[in-house]
Design brief:
There is one protein chain. With 375 residues, the chain is an alpha/beta fold. It folds into two domains: 123 residues, Aspartate Aminotransferase, domain 1; 220 residues, 3-Layer(aba) Sandwich (Aspartate Aminotransferase, domain 2), CATH 3.40.640.10. Helix 2 packs across helix 11 and helix 4 runs parallel beside helix 5. Belongs to the class-I pyridoxal-phosphate-dependent aminotransferase family. Its cofactor is pyridoxal 5'-phosphate.
Length: 375
């Protein structure tokens, strides 16, 4: 009997395969198609011949852990203990899976806010937990009344994602104030805060759980160098959590991957001395603005994009077709691939919306927009 009977081939793989078959422009999967920073390549080439290809310590390369501590202090004014509170993971998804399986016991409930990234629920189910899926509000802000009403004595974890994939929504200071009030009433509750797009925020500086001591004391915070440095194929992320939670997470981590790719850790550790995260945010802002300007006069309706490198649009003015069918038609008849938003909902809620990834070259975005504007 399958432990994941409802899990089939990922929609991201399905759309990419269909895009490849029809030679469509792929704005579906969330990865950049432009070269990485030349400084990163220079460091990589120089370090490749050095003796850095054996296991690193289980928790991560010590120099990289120190750089993460420095980064966290500089950006969020939080001091972390590199020996007890941070863990390098094989990508953010492995970090999420490890944290959930280490902390959630059989029969315990995990609240997930829909639309949600597709790795959350399978991680809960494989841990023997029960996923409780709650829809965000129509503007994709958290519905705290529904969240609080769903908390029971069995609720172990609340998963939040900020900036939010797929919608690009970001949480406000008021949102975190409300969350603090809820958390104080439920001492058993842990937060898993997925912040992999923390350096891609447009309207205001990213508000991290790192900046909220009441919350961070009971939270596992997930980050991704793959997303932040646009090297998604390197699969290097990290978790920061208080020692009492990290002890359990490390127990599970050591039997999943033990340690993460040593070469990537060495390169990233050195690259963090020269990388400019503000420049990365500016680059993505320019791409967001370019894509929005190019599509603005089309029949697609642009929703706000406050962070991430995803743009959600409504096609309600174009078709009444369901979003999966329309996405397939968009590829086969118009040559552009997107992701239907309904796949991020437990109940497959269909509001006739699509997600486009704008982490692409300007030439790719211009070519895609030309096709979309002809629809």
């Amino acid at each position: 009997m399958s432990k994941l009977p409802d899990v089939t081939t990922s929609i991201f793989s399905v759309m990419t395969q269909l895009a490849n078959k029809h030679n469509a422009i792929n704005l579906s999967q969330g990865f950049p198609n432009f070269p990485v920073d030349k400084k990163l390549l220079e460091i990589s080439g120089r370090l490749l011949g050095e003796n850095i290809h054996q296991y690193t310590p289980m928790a991560g390369l010590p120099s990289l852990l120190e750089k993460i501590a420095r980064l966290t202090l500089e950006n969020y004014r939080r001091t972390i203990n590199t020996e007890t509170e941070v863990l390098i993971t094989s990508g953010a998804t492995q970090g999420i899976f490890t944290a959930i399986n280490a902390l959630v016991n059989k029969g315990e409930e995990v609240i997930i806010l829909d639309p949600s990234y597709d790795s959350y629920e399978p991680s809960v189910l494989l841990a023997g937990g029960i996923s409780v899926r709650i829809s965000l509000q129509e503007d994709y802000a958290p519905d705290f009344n529904r969240i609080e009403a769903s908390i029971t004595s069995k609720t172990k974890m609340l998963v939040i994602n900020n900036p939010h994939n797929p919608t690009g929504k970001t949480w406000t200071a008021s949102d975190f104030d409300t969350l603090e009030n809820i958390i104080e009433k439920h001492p058993q509750l842990i937060i898993l805060s997925d912040e992999v797009y923390e350096y891609i925020s447009f309207l205001h500086p990213h508000i991290s759980l790192h900046t909220r001591p009441t919350l961070s004391a009971r939270a596992v915070i997930v980050s991704s160098f793959g997303k932040s440095l646009h090297v998604t194929g390197w699969k290097v992320g990290y978790l920061i959590a208080p020692e009492n939670l990290m002890v359990e997470i490390k127990k599970a981590h050591q039997f999943l991957v033990f340690s993460v790719n040593s070469f990537s850790q060495h390169v990233i550790s050195e690259y963090l001395d020269v990388v400019d995260f503000d420049a990365i945010a500016k680059m993505y802002r320019q791409k967001r603005d370019l894509f929005r300007d190019l599509v603005r006069d089309s029949r697609f309706e642009l929703l706000p994009c406050e962070g991430t490198y995803f743009q959600v649009v409504s096609y309600a003015n174009i078709s009444s077709q369901d979003d999966i069918g329309f996405s397939q038609e968009l590829i086969t008849q118009h040559g552009v691939a997107a992701i239907p938003i309904s796949v991020f909902h437990k109940e497959a809620t269909d509001r006739r919306m699509l997600r486009f990834c704008f982490a692409k070259t300007d030439e790719t975005l211009i070519a895609a927009a030309e096709k979309l504007s002809r629809i």
